[in-house]
Amino acid sequence: EVQLVESGGGSVQPGGSLRLSCAASGFTFSNYGMSWIRQAPGKGFEWVSSISSGAAVTSYADSVKGRFTISRDNAKNTLYLQMSTLKPEDTAGYYCKKASESYSARGQGTQVTVSA
After folding, report:
1. Which of 11, 44, 45, 67 is the most exposed place for a label (fewest CB within 10 A)?
2. Got the DSSP string for 19-81?
3. What is the structure's pLDDT at 103?
4. Residues 106, 97: contact at Cβ < 8 Å?
5. Is the pLDDT of residue 104 over 90?
6. If DSSP codes are grouped into helix, strand and coil, which group holds residue 83?
7. pLDDT band at 99 (very low <50, low <70, confident <90, very high)
């Protein structure tokens, strides 16, 4: 059974930083590209970032480019999202998923709240 468990969210002031983690199990993590998506209150899902299976290729939404960094540790079956210079509009539930899967195949999420 595929399991994706996100952690690391919290409340932070604008300009702050957080590092999210996604622990994966139930599949060969190193074989899959992975993505982070988010859902702000009252809004639909938004793609945030993706990383290839071997971490050679990364991509970011324009809204987070230059502020967020996606990475992975295939030995630990873990995906990361380093978030810096956070803005109130980054407030959302953050989820990880296999890059090739639909948004419904996501973990339970971790909440990020950015407010003064």
Report:
1. 44
2. EEEEEEESS-GGGS-EEEEEE-TTS-EEEEEEE-TTSS-EEE-TTTTTTEEEEEETTTTEEEE
3. 87
4. yes
5. no
6. strand
7. very high
Rounded to whole angstroms, the Cα distance separating 36 from 81 reads: 8
pLDDT band at 59 (very low <50, low <70, confident <90, very high): very high
Dihedral-angle region of residue 75 (phi above 0 means left; psi in -120 to 50 means alpha; beta otherwise) = alpha
Distance CA 88, CA 116 (A): 8
> Residue 54: is it exposed, middle or buried by C-beta count within 10 angstroms (0-12/13-18/19+)?
exposed
Give the separation between CA 50 and CA 68, rounded to whole angstroms.
11
Q: Residues in the chain, how many?
A: 116
82: three-class secondary structure by DSSP: strand
